[in-house]
Amino acid sequence: IDQHREVFNILKGQSKYGMGFVALRVLGDDKKPAHLLVIEDQMRQKMFVVGNESVDPALKEKLAENGVSYSNQGDRDMPSAVNKFFSDCFAFRVSSRVIAAGHERYLEGQMIGAISGVVELPQDLDPASIGNVLAIAKVDPTIYTNIVKEPKPKSKPAAAKR
Predict the structure, then answer these.
(1) Angle value at C-alpha 44, between 1 and 4, nearest 5 degrees
(2) What is the tens place of the pLDDT at every residue in 135-158?
(3) What is the pTM of this model?
(4) How far apart are CA 23 and CA 101, in angstroms?
């Protein structure tokens, strides 16, 4: 049960390992629906976005300056770029003692579980890596996760003095 709870927490952006995953539906340049699969590394304050739209190189550079990497889902290099992102995520967590060395595969499995809960994947999938999973994910996510953060409850105003 704890394993499934962590997958759910990744989708809520509340992973104890500082990972998040959301799928967003957007309008592309041609005004047709497009998608963005967003992987968040909260501990390093970085994101990796996989989409089905090409992005202007100048925009990609600006995004990168702000800790956001972007790759088109159809790009040949996309799986290796995603895998490098996760390699850095896992190395940071091991060096920060968030996870023990050797537990990277467990965390990768949790992320793959979260991704498979949102996008359509083949039934006989043998996930070699997160990058490979995102490369074969069906273009239209079947579920879009909620990106609206729940507002913090407002504190009650102090009682008026008489």
Answers:
(1) 10
(2) 877 755 544 544 444 455 666 555
(3) 0.78
(4) 30
